[in-house]
Design brief:
single chain; 113 residues; alpha+beta; HIT family, subunit A; 5 strands; 24% helix; 23% strand; binds guanosine-5'-monophosphate; binds zinc ion
Length: 113
């Protein structure tokens, strides 16, 4: 656990969150500032800064599990969904704990800003 990390605090129960899924070291919560009618965040319970760090550690299985859970949650929405992994400042990452956004419930524009 990283004591300065918001998502680690959510994992530890120190900050409340609306849980959508929790099993096998992976958690999904509702985003506190939703950008679509469905906006979930899927992340590993252990602290990993971003997907680049994750890849360098060779944890492909954990990335696959994250994407599998995110896709299962997204697929509950008949109209389709989008998975997003913002990485680094230019990638729009604001929380330094790897997470996959699941967005659904409305038509999503492309390209992103
Ligand atoms: P990023 O900008 O890093 O890709 O995404 C971080 C996301 O975390 C944002 O969509 C933001 O709304 C969400 N977020 C930040 N703090 C909290 C929090 O305390 N609780 C929840 N549920 N979501 C949060
Ligand atoms: Zn963390």
């Amino acid at each position: 656990m990283n004591k300065d990390c918001i998502f680690c605090k959510i994992v530890a129960g120190e900050i409340p969150a609306k849980m959508a899924h929790r099993a096998n070291g992976i958690m999904a919560i509702e985003d506190v500032n939703p950008q679509a009618p469905v906006h979930l965040l899927v992340f590993p319970e252990r602290h990993v800064a971003d997907i680049a760090e994750h890849t360098f550690k060779g944890s492909a299985d954990e990335i696959a599990c994250l994407m599998e859970i995110a896709a299962e949650l997204g697929a509950k929405n008949a109209g389709g969904f989008r998975l997003v992994v913002n990485t680094g400042p230019d990638g729009g990452q604001t929380v330094g704990h790897l997470h996959v956004h699941v967005l659904a419930g409305r038509p999503l524009m492309w390209p992103p800003g």
